Amino acid sequence: MCKNLFTLYQYIKNKYDNYQEIKYSETEIIIVFYDELEMRISEQKYFNLYFNNIFYYNVDWQDIKDTLDDFFSNKCVICLKKNRIKIFYLSDYKANNDFTHVWTISEKLK
C-alpha cells in the first residue's frame, strides 16, 4: 500500500509548490499550507483525507489526483462547522455565519 502513497507524494511534490511543507512517511502524507491549514492523507483501502485532523473524505486511486488538483489549484473552500468539514468550489461559495472557520489553501477567509 505505501507504494501508492509514495507515488502520490511524488506526484504532489513534482507538480505543486504552493504549500509551506510536505512530509512523507509510510503511513501518511502531511501537507502544511500555512499555520492554520494542514491536509493529511493516509492510505487504507482508500485514501483518507483530513483537514486539521478532521476526517473529510475517502477517495479511491482513480480519483485522488483529480481531487488533489482541485485543492492545489485553489478551486475549493474548506469550511468547518461543529467539528465537521464541508467543501465547496470557490465559485459556489457564499459567506455563511454558520461556519466557524473557512480556508482556501492560500488564505484564511474566516
Q: What's the arrangement of secondary structure elements?
A:
Elements: H1 2-15, E1 21-24, E2 28-34, E3 37-43, E4 47-51, E5 54-59, H2 61-72, E6 76-81, E7 84-89, E8 101-103
Antiparallel strand pairs: 1-2, 2-3, 3-4, 4-5, 6-7, 6-8
Helix pairs in contact: 1-2
Question: Can you characterise this structure?
Answer:
- 24% of the residues lie in helices and 40% in strands.
- With 110 residues, the protein is α+β, with helices and mostly antiparallel strands.
- The strands form two sheets. Strands 1-2-3-4-5 form a five-stranded antiparallel sheet.
- Strand 2 (28-34) and strand 3 form a beta hairpin.
Between the first and last Cα atoms, what is the distance in angstroms?
A: 37 Å
CA gyration radius, whole angstroms: 13 Å
* Unreliable sequence segments: none
Secondary-structure class:
alpha+beta
- How would you sum up the major sheet? 5 strands, antiparallel
Oligomer: single chain
Mean pLDDT: 90
Strand fraction: 35-45%
Task: Name the descriptors.
single chain, 110 residues, alpha+beta, 8 strands
Offer a concise description of the structure:
This protein is α+β, with helices and mostly antiparallel strands and 110 residues long. It is 24% helix and 40% strand.
